[in-house]
């Protein structure tokens, strides 16, 4: 397991533009969620371009912080876990079954990571790695209570003894994933990470996606389709017709440094003919 010495906390704070309070408080936790979500995007460029994701902390620090890239759930939340532990938070890593687009009672693999934090006498969920529905604040671990966020309202409901996280999208409560409170360890994420970032049929290998959440909008990229969802319900969509347009969107909308992605140009044709 990575140690605190593998984490450069100051560089992380520079990366997310945070210079606020560092006490292990609810306010700090919510601020970190907001700053992280708007600064370090969800993206799968490495698996799409043929490079498996690595989950050791030095690799996460180099990729997400120093190289100004993003990542998916394991990368995002393992990095954030290291930060929270360094700040003195009591953190329990969890695993979830993704249900986006599936029935609420579906049994899918435990392929997602989120964090449970005990703070100020209550338990809160923080998850900066669920793509287009990434949280930019925390949620109380409390059933059947609608919880406002800067973007959509969220709630937790019971499903056969598990928690199911839902978001109000338009006028519909959509289920994001279900989970229990079994503590996970870094080794528990290695197998699903390898599977998702290397299996030829994985959607992280076959397609390109990116997402970023700010205080008033969500940016989402699926292949060459860019969508911007604004707070209040309006959305803008456009197709990125050239690799230059794709790079520009990755740089400006998702804040990704693409200078090290030499094979992106060659891979662009895969997106245009998908």
UniProtKB/TrEMBL annotation:
Keywords: Transferase
GO molecular function list: acetyltransferase activity
Transmembrane spans: none
Family: Belongs to the arylamine N-acetyltransferase family.
Name listed for the protein in its UniProt record: Arylamine N-acetyltransferase
InterPro entries linked to this entry: Arylamine_N-AcTrfase, Papain-like_cys_pep_sf
Gene3D superfamilies: Arylamine N-acetyltransferase (3.30.2140.10), Cysteine proteinases (2.40.128.150)
Record-linked PANTHER family: ARYLAMINE N-ACETYLTRANSFERASE 4-RELATED, N-HYDROXYARYLAMINE O-ACETYLTRANSFERASE
């Amino acid at each position: 397991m990575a140690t605190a010495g593998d984490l450069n906390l100051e560089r992380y704070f520079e990366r997310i533009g945070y210079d606020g309070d560092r006490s292990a408080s609810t306010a700090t936790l919510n601020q970190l969620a907001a700053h992280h979500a708007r600064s370090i995007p969800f993206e799968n460029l490495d698996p799409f371009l043929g490079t498996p994701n690595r989950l050791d902390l030095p690799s996460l620090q180099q990729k997400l912080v120093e190289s100004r890239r993003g990542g998916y759930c394991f990368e995002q939340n393992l990095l954030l876990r290291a930060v929270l532990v360094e700040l003195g938070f009591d953190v329990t890593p969890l695993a979830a079954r993704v249900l986006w687009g599936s029935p609420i009672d579906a049994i899918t693999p435990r392929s997602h990571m989120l964090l449970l934090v005990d703070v100020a006498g209550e338990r809160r969920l923080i998850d900066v790695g669920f793509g287009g529905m990434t949280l930019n604040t925390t949620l109380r671990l409390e059933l059947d209570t609608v919880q406002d966020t800067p973007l959509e309202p969220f709630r937790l409901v019971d499903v056969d003894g598990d928690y199911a996280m839902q978001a109000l999208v338009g006028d519909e409560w959509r289920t994001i994933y279900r989970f229990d409170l079994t503590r996970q360890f870094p080794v528990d994420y290695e197998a699903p990470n390898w599977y998702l970032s290397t299996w030829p049929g994985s959607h992280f290998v076959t397609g390109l996606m990116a997402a970023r959440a700010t205080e008033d909008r969500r940016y989402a990229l699926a292949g060459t389709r860019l969508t911007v969802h604004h707070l209040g319900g309006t959305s803008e969509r456009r197709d990125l017709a050239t690799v230059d347009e794709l790079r520009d969107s990755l740089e400006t909308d998702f804040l990704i440094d693409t200078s090290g992605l030499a094979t992106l140009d060659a891979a662009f044709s895969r997106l245009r003919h998908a």
